[in-house]
């Protein structure tokens, strides 16, 4: 079942690829991204984009957690072969994907292959021909605030559809404004 904002983000029983437990929304704003398998060309292209923007996003207070429906070994082979400045997790049983209501669709996967050819080609350059044999999971992104509440749930309309980075930046800007206003509030005298 899909999740909607505002709601509490379900806890994840995951560890990252280095064996460290993953906690979501514990004092930091988080982009929780669910990916198809580690060889997915669309997924690898998005990881490339997040890697390129991570420094500026982290400076604004964002943690990124990427969860793949693959084994740890596959994540290491396709995604983590280059150092990534954010947490990567393997969810080979699909339990975390199911908990967040991630959908499956062969037709929406096919739609992405037809409509997103430039992204597909760029992603295939990253993963090779293995990227043509991927599962039918659809992507999803969740913006989670410091208290662990889902502020925005974004379920991809096809295999290459991700939350626009501009919406992530807006989420961060609102968080900065909220913190700044909270610091400026002066307690009232009784």
UniProtKB/TrEMBL annotation:
Pfam families found in the cross-reference section: AhpC-TSA
Residues of the Thioredoxin domain: 3-173
Protein name: Redoxin family protein
Organism of origin: Cognatiluteimonas sedimenti
């Amino acid at each position: 079942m899909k999740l909607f904002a505002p709601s509490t983000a379900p806890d994840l029983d995951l560890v990252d690829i280095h064996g460290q437990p993953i906690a979501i929304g514990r004092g930091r704003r988080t982009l929780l991204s669910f990916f198809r398998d580690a060889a997915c060309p669309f997924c690898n292209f998005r990881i490339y984009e997040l890697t390129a923007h991570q420094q500026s996003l982290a400076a604004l207070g964002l943690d990124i957690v990427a969860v793949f429906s693959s084994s740890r070994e596959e994540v290491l082979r396709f995604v983590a072969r280059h150092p990534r400045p954010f947490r990567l997790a393997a969810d080979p049983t699909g339990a975390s994907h199911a908990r967040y209501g991630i959908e499956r669709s062969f037709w929406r996967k096919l739609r992405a292959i037809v409509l997103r050819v430039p992204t597909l080609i760029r992603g295939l350059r990253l993963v090779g021909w293995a990227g043509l044999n991927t599962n039918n999971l659809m992507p999803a992104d969740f913006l989670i605030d410091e208290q662990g509440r889902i502020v925005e749930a974004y379920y991809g309309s096809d295999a290459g559809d991700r939350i626009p980075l501009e919406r992530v930046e807006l989420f961060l800007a609102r968080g900065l404004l909220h913190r700044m206003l909270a610091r400026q509030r002066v307690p009232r005298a009784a």
